[in-house]
Amino acid sequence: MDATVVRVTGEPLDLREAAALVADPGAGGTCIFSGTVRDHSPAGAVVGLRYEAWEDLALRRLTELAADLHGRWPLRRVAILHRIGDLAVGEISVIVAVAAAHRAEAFEACREGIERLKDDVPVWKQEQLADGTAEWVLGS
Length: 140
What we know:
This protein is an alpha+beta fold. The protein contains three helices and nine strands.
């Protein structure tokens, strides 16, 4: 099994699959962050989201991010998965999963992974609002 898995996909994301991707007998701690579509934003009631990506660059940046995480912490495995396309409220839009020998490294790397993904990876989010309008959201 690879120590790093990155994916940008139109298919639903699965927490069990993410856990399996980072499972490692040398890991004493696994941390999984999942981002889900919520039903509200500062713009109003949200009925769904549309994610678009510059896929080639997004995959390259995700690979670089995973390599950076491996370089900063003694991680066993990293999986970073992002959805694109139309998502309904409650669906998972992103998963960052890391496994490390110890919990502190797993928590720290997972947190860093999602924060950097939001800043560095070319994936854009459009909120579909209940009033029929749609708004692109920057820095999400």
